[in-house]
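--- STAGE predict ---
source: upstream dedup step, 1 unique chain passed
mode: sequence only
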Amino acid sequence: MPMFDELASPERARRRQQPETLRLRAVMPVITVSDLERSMVWYRDILGFAVAEEARKDERLTVVQLKAGKVRFLLRQDPEVRSHRRPPQTVQLYCATRQDVDKLAAGIQVRGGAVEEAPGEAHAGRDFTVVDPDGVRISIFWRPEA
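--- STAGE serialize ---
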């Protein structure tokens, strides 16, 4: 299977649906947080992401790019959120893994995190849910084909 569309065979390109539909290779959610330092620590130390990059303006941390396997998240500080002039944006993320979700959930708890929904059977697989410091729900699921 080609990594990029331009590497696809001309025959395969002709068979594609017309008009052409959107095909994505990855997604990087941007999560607006109320306290960037606190959120970076939570995603890194509790959930297990690695910090890939940090951006600063006038010595102040403004954006953090996190990575876990092939997935990346961006955390950004919103001055309006920090000053409580408006609520943070909320979203729920549903993340696939091939790792043992029971072990992942246990590790999060050992590192001081709270698992909101314990690992359980769901849709021919297993999943659990955590909530970040700003209320973003993150469900991590395993399925045989994930």
